[in-house]
From TrEMBL:
The potassium channel is composed of a homo- or heterotetrameric complex of pore-forming subunits. Residues 389-508 form the Cyclic nucleotide-binding domain. It is found in: Membrane. One of its GO terms (molecular function) is voltage-gated potassium channel activity. Residues 545-615 form the KHA domain. Its main location: membrane. The chain crosses the membrane at residues 69-86, 106-125, 210-231, 256-275, 287-305. CDD domains: CAP_ED. It comes from Nicotiana sylvestris (Wood tobacco). The segment S4 is probably the voltage-sensor and is characterized by a series of positively charged amino acids. The pore-forming region H5 is enclosed by the transmembrane segments S5 and S6 in the Shaker-type (1P/6TM) and contains the GYGD signature motif which seems to be involved in potassium selectivity. This is Potassium channel. The lineage of its organism: Eukaryota, Viridiplantae, Streptophyta, Embryophyta, Tracheophyta. It is a multi-pass membrane protein. GO terms for cellular component: monoatomic ion channel complex. Keywords: Ion channel, Ion transport, Membrane, Potassium, Potassium channel, Potassium transport, Transmembrane, Transmembrane helix, Transport, Voltage-gated channel.
């Protein structure tokens, strides 16, 4: 096989086949053991799976992702390395082409001839449907009609051996040397091989790229040196060549002596050392040297650019962290923030970089919502089910809620919730521990310690009141955050689950009295309740907050400046809503409308933060 499109991919289906195989990926004799080794050109279609129950291809059709076929391709890469070395070498040193290397060339060509035959049986990926085509006639037509087939044949035919059989003589003319260069067509296999390795996370990207750059450099040095020696061998005056001035009888000397001189000249020229002991003498050599040095400029830029990119890439996170720390230090200095607050900011930033690989949002942000939900369900479902507030709720509620949660890490001694702040989220501790703290008369008082699967911030969200406590991380802690707006939207249509959640909340508040020990002047301990043991009457679902205005929505431009909206809890009836509006605005309205002028007849249709106009 000689092209990148023949790669691992989903299974084609004929019209007579059941649609069920779309859920599976076909294979002929091997399975994909590690998805990390799959290159971008052979990824499965959405919905396909890897492993058991895979369907077989047609008879005498090879799957491009077959393990044995992959091993065969890897073996051919080794032979390509030999061809890349031998082709320029045989052009420069004709004795080697007709001597000891000839049998090796024939064996290598035989392996590539076998690969040409195998290619007629390898399924390929249809780019329009992303399904494997396994019909033999389509596979053959595609291969023959593209450039790959004639080039594969031309690079495989042993022209010199064929000429010897036909004429009975061994021809050492330069034409056969250049025909042998057609074998360099096989180099595309090496490029595809490195592309697969770069995408395979089992191998270091740095060392893969490093090896690729070394191979490119060695091939350039080898090819230039061989061609430079070939120029010397074909020049009419051997003494007026770059090597003839130093080795007059170089044509009769050892092949390896000439090869050593060639590599020495090529490396010193590439490295721009230029000792001057080997230099161009005739015009042809000077012209070639000019183009070789121009090529070296581009090659050197390519090598330096790639190496710089690889090295800098490993330090990007360090540079980003240093810049972020400097910005924090500058900000705290300009605004004269307290030392303790500055330490919290630095601790949070340091933790963010140290746990970058653990941050769920950074990993999941580019994934489809279905996959994110499945991952969150796997990681946090047990935590949600064991939290007191969600015990007994339906499976549907848990599945919907787990897709809305956000995971965060907090370093020690960082305030997660601040007393008297507006309730926007509540939290569940996944790992670690937090302290619940209250401030009374300017004094910080410790209330309790919360651990895994315990919740905080729920009181402020349920009551729609400022947070009654400060919650501070005791050690490195992972928590999941639930937005109160998303939570209420989720609960509203699930009334039975809403009743269960409120019952759990009321039961805990009635059973729990959080007390703080204080000392009176006599040194006797006394107890003081921080949270009342009675709970206000709550509706069957969490209260909806709306914003009411006391004027016609068509007159918004003339009234917005002097008549601000009022945020209220939505009552149970229209009559109660009109009464609240009368109290707020001092006049009795009869009509309730939305911003677009549509009249409201059913309060149950209203959502959180809707604007109502009563006039």
């Amino acid at each position: 096989m000689s092209y990148s499109d023949t790669a691992r991919s989903p299974v084609p289906l004929s019209e007579t086949r059941s649609p069920m195989p779309l859920l599976f990926r076909r294979h002929s004799s091997g399975e994909i053991r590690n998805i990390a080794s799959v290159s971008s050109s052979i990824l499965p279609a959405f919905g396909t799976v890897i492993g058991e129950n895979s369907i077989k291809l047609k008879r005498f059709v090879i799957a491009p992702y077959d393990r044995r076929y992959r091993l065969w391709q890897t073996f051919l890469v080794v032979l390509v390395v030999y061809s890349a070395w031998a082709s320029p070498f045989e052009l420069a040193f004709k004795k080697a082409a007709t001597g000891g290397l000839l049998p090796v060339d024939l064996v290598v060509d035989a392996f590539f001839a076998i690969d040409i035959i195998l290619t007629f049986f390898v399924a390929y990926l249809d780019k329009s449907t992303y399904l494997l085509v396994e019909e033999h006639n389509k596979i053959a037509f595609r291969y023959i009609s593209h450039l790959w087939f004639p080039m594969d044949v031309a690079s495989t035919l042993p022209f010199q051996t064929i000429n010897r059989i036909v004429t009975g003589k061994m021809n050492r003319g330069p034409v056969f040397g250049f025909l042998n260069l057609l074998r360099l067509w096989r180099l595309r296999r090496v490029s595809e091989f490195f592309s697969r390795l770069e995408k395979d996370t089992r191998f270091s990207y740095f060392w893969t790229r490093y090896c690729k750059l070394i191979c490119v450099t060695l091939f350039a040095v080898h090819s230039a040196g061989c061609f430079y020696f070939w120029l010397a061998t074909r020049y009419h005056n051997a003494d007026s060549t770059w090597i003839g001035t130093n080795v007059p009888d170089f044509k009769t000397r050892s092949i390896w002596l000439g090869y050593t001189y060639s590599m020495y000249w090529s490396i010193t020229t590439l490295a721009t050392v230029g000792y001057g002991d080997l230099h161009a003498v005739n015009t042809e050599e000077k012209i070639f040297t000019i183009f070789y040095m121009l090529f070296n400029i581009g090659l050197t830029a390519y090598l330096i650019g790639n190496m710089t990119n690889l090295i800098v890439h490993t330090a990007v996170r360090t540079f980003a962290m240093r810049d972020a720390i400097n910005k924090i230090l500058s900000y705290t200095s300009k605004n004269r923030l307290p030392e303790g607050l500055k330490e919290q900011m630095l601790a949070h930033l340091t933790l963010k970089f140290k746990t970058a690989e653990l941050q769920q949002e950074q990993v999941l942000e580019d994934l489809p919502k279905a996959i994110r939900s499945s991952i969150s369900k796997h990681l946090f479902r047990t935590t949600l089910e064991n939290t007191y507030l969600f015990k007994g709720v339906s499976e549907d509620f848990i599945v919907q809620l787990v897709s809305e949660i956000k995971a965060e890490y907090f370093p020690p001694k960082v305030d997660i919730v601040i007393q008297n702040e507006i309730p926007t989220d509540f939290y569940i501790v996944v790992s670690g521990a937090v302290d619940v703290i209250t401030y009374k008369n300017g004094t910080e008082q410790f209330l309790s310690k919360l651990g895994s699967q315990e919740m905080f911030g729920d009181i402020g969200v349920i009551f729609n009141i400022p947070q009654p406590f400060t919650v501070r991380s005791k050690r490195l802690s992972q928590v999941v955050r639930i937005n109160h707006h998303h939570f209420k939207q989720l609960v509203q249509p699930l009334k039975e689950d809403g009743k269960i959640i409120l019952a759990n909340f009321v039961q805990l508040q009635e059973a729990t009295v959080i007390e703080v020990g204080t000392q009176d002047q006599a040194g006797q301990a006394k107890q003081e309740n921080i949270i009342p043991t009675t709970t206000p009457v709550l509706s069957n679902t969490l209260p909806t907050r709306v914003i009411i205005h006391g004027y016609d929505p068509d007159n918004r431009r003339t009234n917005e400046g002097g008549n601000a909206g009022k945020l209220i809890h939505l009552p149970d009836s229209v009559e109660d809503l009109l009464s609240i509006a009368e109290t707020k605005f001092g006049k009795r309205g009869t009509t309730i409308a939305m911003a677009d002028g549509s009249q409201v007849e059913d309060l149950a249709a209203l959502r959180e933060d809707d604007h109502l106009y009563i006039f």
